[in-house]
Each structure stands twice: as structure tokens, then as C-alpha cells.
Amino acid sequence: MARLCLSAAAFVALSCPSSILSGEAVQVIPVPGGGTVPDAEIDEGGTLHLAYLAADNIYYVLSTDGEQTFSDPIRVNTEAGFASGGRYRGPDLAVGAAGTVHVVWYNAAYQQGRPKEEWGVMYARLRPGEGSFEPSRNLNHLPSDNYALAADRQGHVAVAWMAETLFISRSEDGGDTFAAPLTLEADPCECCGSRVLFSEQESLAMLYRDKTGNNRDMYLAVLPGGEPTFRYVKLSRTPLHIEACPMTGGFLSNHGEGLLTAW
Fold it and tell me: Which domain holds residue 118?
């Protein structure tokens, strides 16, 4: 999947580098409906899939004509007005096996004063040919912060979230069911954006910022295919010691037989 560069209220679609330098291939396109904190993916057929927050709801649209037009928006969250977001917290979208669209977001239970067991990371999917998302599911029923989503062509789906430490729930059946979450050995910086990704070798990788001792270092946790435990690699080399959250995330992508990260 190709990930686009996103801003709060618009996304930038980029073509080949040579034409970017001339400015001819850069399009700045407003998110439909005044949406904010968007996430977008381009599938193998060139269709752009876009999810965004508007009026306390998550919406999904697609474009098959080079972002000239968008489909009518489909609300992702089953219960109207039950989504929250802002700054770095918006929906995360992934296109998986057979073109199924997966979306995660954080609900509005906190803002609405609901019991803590109603807080949590929500998940819904849109199967090919369907006109609406399946009923939303609360994956963890916990006060949480930060979340990330990955899906691949083999039907694997992974949802990561932070609640004092890092958790990842995995599905091997395209989102039909999710196993009990795996717990990572980490002290994450909860407000900094994370990324989760299936590698070409079917390993599961997660990029996150740690905060142990107020050292805000970047780490990569990798679960090789078929192995039971994660391996951890400290990526950043320049110390970042601050008693505050940087409120920044990172980028993670497959790159040949390895991984490409940026932060």
C-alpha cells in the first residue's frame, strides 16, 4: 500500500519525483465535508480510500478517478456521534485481503461521561461490494491512548493500542475474530503516534516512542513469523530527554526485504 502525506484538513497527492520538482504533479485536495485528521491508502488498483473525522463521526469515501471526485460518504461508526479525535488522533485505515477496508478509531465514551468499560478502541470493516460497514466493535473496553492498524493480503489484521503499556490484538481470519492481545515490554509515550505493519516476510513490526526515564527514544518491536516473542531494537541515536510528550509520530513501510522508518 502507498501512504499519502496528510495534514489536518487536506491531503497531498504526489506523483513521480521529477514532476514534483516542477510543481505540476502536486495536488492539495480538501477532505470532503470539512473532515479533519484523515488517513488514506491507495490500493493495488489505484483506488484511493480515505477515512476522516467530522462532527463526532468517522466517514469513509473512495476515489477511482485520480481524486477528481469522491463517492458519497459512508459513516463508519454504528452509533452516531460516538467518535473522537483531533491533533494526531484520527481514524487509521488499512486495505486488506480481497479489498476489505478496515478502520479503527477512539470512541467518545470519555467525552460523554460514560463508564470506563465503554471506553476503548473501536473497529469496523467494509467488505467488497457492501454499502455499509459492519457493526462497530470495541476491541479492548479500556481507557486507551494511541492506536494503529495493519492488514495484509493474506487476511492478517493487527490492531495496536496503548494503555500504560503496548498491546496488539491479531486476527488471522480477516477481522472475523481477534485473539487475546499480546503485551509488549515497553513504557510507551502514549500521545505519540505509532505504526504497525506486516512485513513481506509476514513478520509483525511496530514503531513507537518510549518514555522510560523521560528519554523519548524511538523503538521498533518485531515479532518474526511463527515466533512467540517480540524482538526490540532502539532506533534513535540522539538522546531526547524531556519531561513532556513530543506529540509526534513516525512512519513505517516495507522497503525491499527490510523496513524503512522515519520520525
Answer: 35-262
- Cβ of 232: how many Cβ atoms within 10 Å? 14
Mean pLDDT by 10 residues, the chain (263 residues): 40 46 72 93 94 97 92 98 88 97 97 96 97 98 92 96 94 97 93 91 92 95 88 93 89 90 92
Q: What is the CA radius of gyration of the chain?
A: 18
The values of phi and psi at residue 63, to 5°, are -135, 130
C-alpha of 100 from chain center: 15
Q: Would you say residue 2 lies in a domain?
A: no
Q: Torsion angle of alpha carbons 132, 134, 139, 141, nearest 10°? A: 80
| Domain presence at residue 57 | yes
Q: Collapsing DSSP states into helix, strand and coil, what is residue 34?
A: helix
pTM attached to this predicted model: 0.89
Q: Which residues pair with 132 in a beta bridge?
A: none
